[in-house]
Amino acid sequence: MGHFSYKACAIKAGEVPTQACFDRNPLTFVEDVLYGGRPDPNYPHRAYIPRADAPFRLQKEYNNKLQKEIYKFSHRFRLPQGLSGDLVLIQWHYVTANSCLPDSG
User: Fold this and answer.
1) Residue 105 pLDDT more than 80?
2) pTM score, two decimals?
């Protein structure tokens, strides 16, 4: 299981955002609309990927053959208090855990 996190940066037209700006403005995870996930108090900015047996999975087919099952996502996040502007960029970060093995020590 992996997770999503988002950060925001308000800029002026033509301005190049900095990573420091994004890092100052992490979005807070509120809820997973489809799977019922709630915020993790230890990591309040993360929206976790649901378990493999979760409902709302979609089947992707090609030439009438099942290629894979994919998830549908609908998360709610809260913008940082005081963040505003005519141009606010959102940075998305996805950490996967389906293609690695945990460290066995």
Assistant:
1) no
2) 0.76
